[in-house]
Amino acid sequence: MTEKIIENMATIKERISNACRESGRDPSTVKLLLATKTVAAECIKIALQAGQTLIAENKVQELKEKYGILQEIPHTSHFIGHLQTNKIKDILKYGVSCLQSLDRFDLAEKLNRRLLAENKTMDVLIQVNTSDEESKFGISPDKTVELVKQVANMESLNIKGLMTIGLLSSEAEKTRRCFRLLRDIQQQLIALALPGVEMKELSMGMSGDLETAIGEGATIVRVGTAIFGQRPTPDSYYWNENK
Ligand SMILES: *Cc1c(COP(=O)(O)O)cnc(C)c1O
């Protein structure tokens, strides 16, 4: 197990640097985030011990279960799943420093209020639904600027950029359109120069499409399967509202 994970990480890093080379980018501008849903804490530990520092869960329940074990090793924890407002207190309690899946006003407002009460701040990325699929979360592209403007006024939330899940397609060009759309929205927001809004991070690209995402400017790629192996549950379980 240990060897396999370490070998897979080396392969991913090579894929990242090859993709950077092809698009003339410096590999240090792309962060590797380990998407750890369904992965046992012991396996995540192997990756952290091998030098990885950035991990993210999709479900509060898993965040909670693994928190104690992973505490032993310094790392940064993001959240990339659909967050219900009644679980906001948990992501604060279990050390999440960035919510990448902020996709609605209601969630932003309640998160901001809770942070204010606890005298804390949090980094956020706005999740955009660039593939127009019912089953995925994210604000629609044409409403993104408005949400960013609203969140910009919330003093405990620091907007750092945008996040998306690209269309899962065997045709890379279709997926590329999603990533390009996210970058277009980023550029639009940069041009608006809203006070308190940073647009440095583009979190896009996963095991199957990270090269495409890096070609379109990804600064964070989120990788699960290619490092930890196939998951027992289909992604729809994590990406669907009713589960
Ligand atoms: C599971 C997941 C990933 C990683 O997907 P893989 O295909 O396993 O690399 C990335 N982002 C989100 C939001 C996820 O839920």
From TrEMBL:
Xref: InterPro entries: Ala_racemase_N (IPR001608), PLP-binding_barrel (IPR029066), PyrdxlP_homeostasis (IPR011078)
Cofactor list: pyridoxal 5'-phosphate
Pfam families referenced in this protein's UniProt entry, alphabetically: Ala_racemase_N
Modified residue annotations for N6-(pyridoxal phosphate)lysine: K37
Residue ranges annotated for the Alanine racemase N-terminal domain, each copy included: 38-232
Listed Gene3D superfamilies: Alanine racemase (3.20.20.10)
Keyword Hydrolase: no
Molecular function GO terms recorded: pyridoxal phosphate binding
UniProt entry tagged with the keyword DNA repair: no
Keywords: Pyridoxal phosphate
HAMAP family: PLP_homeostasis (MF_02087)
Family of this protein: Belongs to the pyridoxal phosphate-binding protein YggS/PROSC family.
Function as written in the Swiss-Prot or TrEMBL entry: Pyridoxal 5'-phosphate (PLP)-binding protein, which is involved in PLP homeostasis.
Designated name of the protein: Pyridoxal phosphate homeostasis protein
Source organism: Parapedobacter pyrenivorans
